[in-house]
Amino acid sequence: MKVLVVDDIGYSCHYYARLVEKIGFTPMRASSGFEALEVLKTEKDIHVVLTDLMMSGMDGVDLFQQAQLVERYSDQGILPSPHFILMTDLRLEEDSQDRNQQRIKLARKLGFSKIMLKPVDYKELKQELNDLALNVIQSSTSEPALDLYSLVQKLRMSVKEIVTAGNKEAGAEFLKILQEEIDNLKKHLKIN
C-alpha cells in the first residue's frame, strides 16, 4: 500500500516517510498541499494520505477537501479518494475560537480517518495503517467489496464498550461468540 506523506517541514516529511516505510508500506512525499494534489492526480495507487495540519498555502484540511474533487480512475473504473490521517501538535480545546482549533474540529466533521497528535506514536500509526490496508486488500480482488475497515472499527468499539462498562459476563459471552465466528471463518478458509 502506498502512503503519501505531506509536510512542509523537510525533516518532518522525511521522518514520517521513514516511519511509514518501517511499518512496511511504501511512502511517497510531498512538501505542500499543492504538490500533494499533483501527486494524487498522477499516482492512482495511493490509498492513504498522512498530512500535517498547519502548512503554508494549503493546510491539511484544505488538501482533504481538494483531494475529494480529484477524479481518479483505473482500468476497473472510478477510484475512491484516499483515506486521510491528520497530524497536528495542537491539543484540541473545545471552547477555543483559534483558527487552527476550528480546523481540527472541521477535520473531524469532514471524515478524516484519524487525527493524530505529534509526535505521532509508532504503534498507533502502525495500527491505523494496518486497519486501512484492509480496504486495499478487499478493493484489489474481483470479489464483491467489503468495508473491512468499518467492520474492524465496530468490533474495536464493541470491545471498548464492554471493557469500559466492566461487565465481565458480557465480555465472556462476547469472547465466546467471537471464538465461534473465528472457527467459522477458519472453516471457510480451510485453516486449522
From TrEMBL:
Gene3D superfamilies: 3.40.50.2300. InterPro entries: Bact_response_regulator, CheY-like_superfamily, Sig_transdc_resp-reg_receiver. It holds the Pfam family Response_reg. One of its GO terms (molecular function) is protein histidine kinase activity. Transmembrane segments: none annotated. GO terms for biological process: phosphorelay signal transduction system. The modification 4-aspartylphosphate is found at residue 52. Residues 2-133 form the Response regulatory domain. Its EC number is 2.7.13.3. It comes from the Bacteria. Keywords: Phosphoprotein, Transferase. This is Sensory/regulatory protein RpfC. The gene is rpfC_7.
